[in-house]
Amino acid sequence: MPTTDYYIAFDLETTGLSAEIDRVIEIGAVLFDAQGREVDRFEELINPARPVSPGARAINGILDADLARAPYATEVLPRFLSFLESAPAVPLIAHNAGFDAKFLGREFGRAGLPMPPPLVHDTLALARRRLPTLRSHRLASLVEHFRLGTGVSHRALGDALVVKDLWLQIGRAHVNSSHTVISYAVFCLKKK
Q1: Which of 13, 127, 163, 175 could disulfide-link 26, Cβ–Cβ 3.0 to 4.6 Å?
Q2: Catalytic residues
Q3: Which residue has the higher pLDDT, 64 or 173?
Q4: What ranges make up the beta strands (E) of 50-168?
């Protein structure tokens, strides 16, 4: 598959906000072309072997009972890596990409798996640069601003689909410009 006109938008749901101690509980991703046509998608819950924090549960609605029968990260991450490798060198895209890159790196490190090689382009940073006068650059605010038609669900695949639509609005023309696209590498955080 040619890689120049394809992208993978993804989102994670987690047990909390700290990549050091919290865990990924859901991965959602969509592979799409430059016209926005969906080519493939990935969606899986992950058993974090720990409770979801009340704050995270209030946002994403994922209950501990929902995760009790889900596979562990050591089973899901190889499948996600395989999904990413089905389109090698395709740019990854996330909203607030630093957050997602840290969590993904930590989970890959815990599982002893190789880090996904592509950089993760950040639609949050891009929106802040392209729309500096907008009051909020949260995903829901950008959906409203661009009238994307799909709402933020705070579930991984639903939000990955919103990130795809946002990228089509503000990102794809800037993928080769280091002055407008801020990207993060997926890497394993070291314990202090």
Answers
A1: 13
A2: 154
A3: 64
A4: 92-94, 120-122
